[in-house]
Structures are given as C-alpha cells and as structure tokens.
Give the backbone structure.
Amino acid sequence: MWNNLDRKCSNFFVKIEQYFTKKEPILFNHFFKIGSSRLS
C-alpha cells in the first residue's frame, strides 16, 4: 500500500516538475535552487 502511495506522490511531483519546466522554467529553477540549498 505504501509503495503505491509513494509512486502516486512521485508521479504527482514529476507532473508538477514537467509543468513548471515547460511553463515557467526560470521561476522553477529559482525555486529549485532555494529548495535544494535549504535541504542540504
């Protein structure tokens, strides 16, 4: 059950990522840099 949920979540995030890289690549890169720098 959890694996299925994980797969759904990752698919969801991939869809968001694909949407933003198409629509707002600069904005997406900006937020991605902030997010990754905050995580590490």
